[in-house]
């Protein structure tokens, strides 16, 4: 039996929509991108969405909006994909790593609070595995110290915190539509924002600082070549091919996340009280998107080997980022214990109950 860790599913509507784009003669940023941006903003519950080519680009531009002084510190997590923290370096800022909650993998508010200083320019929070972190506490800390927050929502499309979707609580939220994410578009990303000023600036920043993109200059029916460039931007725009996929996949997110929650519940019931295994602990005031389903295991690498030998793909999310040479190593006891014992089990909507039984039987058999 070969069970993949992730397996994206693309709807027939998405396939047809891509064909329409390919036949339309307009493949770049255009009507499909605009349609997706409006649809995603409505889904999240914010006024504005800006489509981009990746979540990495979204994190980069989100921090750029803050105009922080070079060298300013951004308090962040080491338990994340490296793009979270590379985006800080892209902006000539310094990542400062706070510790995590050992039961969830999300940033610990108290650890973040202890690191705030006059050098702190921003806080980067990340919803690990799709489980919302302690948003109210973080934004209370933000207001207290007048420090802005950037939310890395790469795992959290469709997740809910106290009745509102992730991406609607603060001012700057970065999403991923990578092939294995909950809204898979092959690739792509977006920023959801509440400020019109931020929205208009992001549309310039994603297209090299140009004040009118090609689609806007083509709208009257006769191409207009004139535009202004008032700041240095980047080539980060979403194209209509990825937008067509994302737009057509969006109506299925709720249904697919519900199936992910069923799979997570089955895993949890089958692995409860298994010697050597600990489950992550979740609160009832929030709803995970279950991009990942993780367990903590004693002798983790031995269990990984056994699962792989039995045809089950697993992974580790993530090696702590401060182990890489471009970052400064810090004392993070909870992060250290977590990353050395965490395993991501297969999680995708094509996973069957029988496959979950097979995976958990292997784990229950010991290693």
Give structural notes:
- By secondary structure, this protein is α/β, with parallel strands linked by helices.
- The protein is 37% helix and 15% strand.
- The protein contains 13 helices and 13 strands.
- A seven-stranded mixed sheet has the order 1-9-8-5-4-2-3, with helices on both faces. A three-stranded antiparallel sheet has the order 7-6-11, with no helix packed on it.
- A hairpin with a 2-residue loop joins strand 6 and strand 7.
Summarize the structure.
37% of the residues lie in helices and 15% in strands.
List the helices and strands and how they pair.
Elements: H1 12-24, H2 31-44, E1 48-52, H3 55-64, E2 73-77, H4 82-90, E3 94-98, H5 109-115, E4 120-126, H6 135-145, E5 149-152, E6 160-161, E7 164-165, E8 172-176, E9 189-193, H7 196-205, H8 214-218, H9 240-249, H10 253-271, E10 277-279, E11 286-287, E12 293-297, H11 300-309, H12 333-339, E13 342-345, H13 353-364
Parallel strand pairs: 2-3, 2-4, 4-5, 5-8
Antiparallel strand pairs: 1-9, 6-7, 6-11, 8-9, 10-12, 12-13
Helix pairs in contact: 1-9, 2-9, 3-4, 10-13
